[in-house]
Design brief:
Layout lengths: L1 H6 L10 H6 L6 E3 L6 H10 L2 E3 L3 H7 L3 H30 L6 H13 L12 E4 L24 E4 L3
Parallel strand pairs: 1-2
Antiparallel strand pairs: 3-4
Helix pairs in contact: 5-6
Organism: Polarella glacialis
Pfam families: Creatinase_N_2 (PF16189), Peptidase_M24 (PF00557)
Protein name: Peptidase M24 domain-containing protein
Amino acid sequence: VLFSLETAGVEVHPYAEIDAALLTSKGCKVWMDPKQTNFALYLAVGQGGPHVSLPSPLASMKACKNSSELEGMRSAHRRDAAALCSALAHLEALVQGGGTLTEVDVDVEVTRRRAAQWGYMDNSFDTITGYGANGAIVHYRAKREQAATLGLSAPLLLDSGA
């Protein structure tokens, strides 16, 4: 890929050095996507020389999936849905049976069920499990020592993904 880019006249620089490369790009036309370029780089490009400010075609190219990719996504979503449904059914039965669960227990059980699925690599973000009023706290992250105990009197917010 790098050879093809270099052959086409595209320069590739390490991210940590990109601002310096842009400042020395006088006479070179730089393409930047205004929705994907941070302000510091935008300023560096402006000082370095001419630029083209257009959406990057890469996002739309990556969005086009072939049949294998589509089937892989469907399969992954089915496995993830099965794991999540299994975890929720198990947790619901525990709570309705009088068992004690905390917000952290929900996170652990959902992750455990997902991890048992073929192809699981990791959660895509930290699970947000908020019971009752905790569900209204933006990006709430339950900690074992202060996690709320679940009951039947309030809703449970579960925001998770793998």
